[in-house]
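retry 2 of 3: previous attempt timed out while embedding adenosine-5'-triphosphate. Reduced batch size to 1 and resubmitted. Inputs unchanged:
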Amino acid sequence: MSSSETVVETNALTKRYENFTALDSLTMRVGKGEILGFIGPNGAGKTTTIRILVGLSKPTSGTATIAGANCLTESRKIKRLVGYMPDDFGAYPNMRVSEYLDFFGAAYGIGRSPRIKRIDEVLDITGATYMHDLYVDALSRGMQQRVAIARTLMHDPQVLILDEPANGLDPQARIDMRVMLLRLSDMGKTLIVTSHILPELARICNVVAMITKGKLRAFGTLDDIMRDVQQRRTFEIMLISNEQVERVGEIVRRWLQEHAGDALFDVADVVCAKTEMMVRFSTHLNDREVAPLLSHLVSQGETVVQFREVATDLEDAFLSVANAGDESDHVAAGTPASGVVTTASAAEVDA
Ligand SMILES: Nc1ncnc2c1ncn2[C@@H]1O[C@H](COP(=O)(O)OP(=O)(O)OP(=O)(O)O)[C@@H](O)[C@H]1O
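retry 2 succeeded.
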């Protein structure tokens, strides 16, 4: 992470709905001009975090600030500092793009003549000048996303929070979106961009925060996270009957606990696939270190049909980090938010 001036900061941010913890002690910071990729599957807690940041929801505990303004108590300042683009564009029948932007500019209290000038500026920044007189409800999804971003820029905020901006875009529109976000970052804007999948957008992010079930699982540069992910290897143990699966899973877990040293994530990572008669695990251990596990299983009376390493491409591994399950909660909970926190499971994130 760059050492630039901190613009967005959360400390132990927690949100509970009765007994349910939607956000669990989230601590992170984003610097000026940085693009944060805020990644996690559906229900991970991204919108909860964003709603707190933009002052629409109060946390149960913890703090959040944007450019020094308290998100909980200084909602006027926050409104001026932040441009928020929600996931849903909304319906605006019979409204031209210029009228749409004029409407939101007026809502921000921008006077008529600076508003007209600003509309041209934001359309220029977002490459949407040609849409000036088009009707918003006749635009494609990609065009609407541009206009939505133009709208968030009307009051020239320091921070842009974009909820799923790449959602529903075709490949070319995604590329265009990336270019636009980089341009905004070059202008010194700080961006928080959410996504429920590993987006192409992650490649332009300076920092990536991965969140599942309300907890931060990984935080760092994409390179940091990738490096850690690449050091892990996945093994599969094929068994002869499905009644072995849970038992072998437990043996593997205990063995990793003893042999994987401080690589606690390995233990959290054991996946038992009953119907496939298979146990899968990922580990930082090398071949020589992992080989004794096979003899250990045999010495415990387990019949093993195959014990093999499986190829996982980087993207699979990256997604599996984002989709870490409950079992790793005890590990991630005590881990500081800075630096890389990774776990991997074989479950797939929805794409
Ligand atoms: N008002 C509420 N009352 C109870 N539970 C809630 C409420 N709002 C959100 N939740 C729950 O909190 C969890 C986090 O939701 P959140 O909307 O933050 O997830 P998300 O990461 O934004 O997911 P998505 O990508 O689907 O929008 C979910 O399990 C959701 O059901």
